[in-house]
Amino acid sequence: MQRIRGALVVMVVAAWALARVVAVHARPMPAAVAAATPLPTPTAVPRPGGKEARPWPVQGRFTIAAQVTPEAEATPLPAWLPPAYPLPWAPTPHDHFFFGRVFPPSFEDIPIADYRFAARDPESGRVHGGIDIPAPLGTPVLAVGAGRVVWAGEGFTYGREREGDPYGLAVVIRHQLGWQGKPLYTLYAHMEAVWVQPGQWVAQGTPLGLVGSTGRSEGPHVHLEVRMQQADEVVQYAPLLNPELWIAPPIGWGVLVGQVYDTHGRLWDFGRVIIEPLDWTPEVQALWQGRHVIWTHTYGRSGGILADPYYQENFALNNLPAGRYRLVIEMDGHMYKRTVMVYPGRVTFFIFTPEDGFTVVQ
Ligand SMILES: [Zn+2]
């Protein structure tokens, strides 16, 4: 009896160990990351309590165009973000989701909703050249695509090593893949540490360094930019594209893109767009920083901001689980509403005018 019980215990332990191994290996993870960087266990970090789990960022706090994020501590939430679609992801000939995620799979990497690409600073009037993706200090920052490092360190704004640069410690990659014959670059700013050097070749998923809050930043996050060189201008002058149209969505999730016009028939400058997810589960809301409604915006007009060559959009939102969404725009005292579908791995495109309301273009 004693021996049988002992054997049973061994079998149970063996089964448990096997289940653990299967569970660990079932989670897709780039091999380079798994080998090079021990990942903190999300459950080891306390979740923010009700009092601290305020919606952020706090609007109106931003004082500079390039890179600002709120003071709140970014803490991993107990939710799982599916891996991205295989790269390059191109559901139509016009789409170019060439890039992967910026953090390892155990960290959600959803940008701050209400201070996205081309957000206009209410005080300075300048616009935000990238997206801000919050993460705990020390989270590994990954190359979103293969290419050569062309900048690593402090001083990117002027192209020479210099302390006090608004981007802080930054890395810039010139990518292997371009678009329509033009080179593409990605920039990662405010890092705590940089592990690569100019001239170095990196694969997609190569750790570039660690999330920090260096430069003009109010909390740990990555400020991510996508630039497309038009001629032979230096990368500092290359115009900016919305990274949300270049990073592959998580599997089963999609993208919403639009042209939103104002009453003068012009693309609406930094106007508010409200999106109500109608089918979300609580887990997804956790990934979206606890939001039940997404308050976001159209692009602010600026010379350095480039719309997509095909969509000519002034609004784009990635990382939306497939399902129904209610779009709400308030303009000139009228409230316009329309329910749209977001499909897995695809772009839903709409045009809004005050005369016709929302038109979904399939
Ligand atoms: Zn930023």
Give a description of the structure.
A hairpin with a 2-residue loop joins strand 14 (323-331) and strand 15 (334-342). With 362 residues, the chain is mainly beta. Strands 1, 2, 3, 4, 5, 6, 7, 8 and 9 form a nine-stranded antiparallel β-sheet that branches. Strands 13-10-16-17 form a four-stranded mixed β-sheet, with no helix packed on it. The chain has helices at 2-26, 31-36, 282-287; strands at residues 131-134, 140-142, 147-154, 169-175, 184-194, 201-202, 207-211, 221-228, 240-241, 253-260, 272-277, 294-297, 315-321, 323-331, 334-342, 347-353, 357-361. It has a domain at 253-361: Immunoglobulin-like. It is built from three helices and 17 strands. Residues 1-72 have low confidence and may be disordered. The radius of gyration is 22 Å and the shape is globular. The structure holds zinc ion (ZN). Residues 66-67, 128, 130, 132, 223 line the site of zinc ion.
Give a brief rundown of this model.
About 10% of the residues lie in helices and about 30% in strands. It has about 350 residues and is mainly beta.
Count of alpha/pi helices: 3
Strand coverage percent = 25-35%
Give the H and E element order: HHEEEEEEEEEEEHEEEEEE
Bound molecules: zinc ion
Assembly status: single chain
> Helix content range of the residues, please?
10-25%
Distance between the termini: 69 Å
Would you tell me which CATH topology of the domain at 253-361 applies? Answer: Immunoglobulin-like
What would CATH call the class of the domain at 253-361? Mainly Beta
Shape: globular
**Going by CATH, what is the homologous superfamily of the domain at 253-361?**
Immunoglobulins
> Main beta sheet: strand number and arrangement?
9 strands, antiparallel
Count of individual beta strands: 17
Radius of gyration: 22 Å
Low-confidence sequence ranges: 1-72
